[in-house]
Amino acid sequence: xxxxxxxxxEHDQVIGQATRAEVHAQxxxxxxxxxxxxxxxxxxMFHMRxxxxxxxxxxxTSSASGHVDAGEIYEAAAHRELSEELQxxxxxxRIVHIPASKETAFEHTVLYRLITDETPTPDPMEIKSIxxxxxxxxxxxxxxxxxxxxxxxxxxxxxxxxxx
Length: 164
Prior knowledge:
Elements: E1 4-8, E2 14-19, H1 20-25, E3 30-38, E4 44-49, E5 60-61, E6 64-67, H2 74-86, E7 93-98, E8 107-115, E9 127-133, H3 135-144, H4 151-162
Parallel strand pairs: 3-8
Antiparallel strand pairs: 1-2, 3-4, 3-6, 4-5, 4-9, 7-8
């Protein structure tokens, strides 16, 4: 069964629905969540996407991320993605909402933070590998090799660089 997403206007108001394929093919504005998981050493977990992903295969991205399904709220999507991708749960803190743009892959993006030392169990269909680094190290990596990172993750790192 095809995934259905809410289509939004520039103000993140729902104006319709479409399939994942239609949303991506037509660059329609839609919703996504990203979760940054930090450990007690203040290291950020990020992961390499698998080669089978339809967008940005073999690129690094947030600890967990994904689309908001039609009718779903951001927070519910964040908990769902965290569980599906890493088998983690916890108290999520909403950090920022970034409006949809070409740089965010046409996604209205809400970033959440989770602090935990629990060991994640990555979904092998989604995640090739995980790493932990300081935010400063990740900033440096993104600056040196931006092509290795998804555009939405680069936008979030840029936001984080300006707002920490």
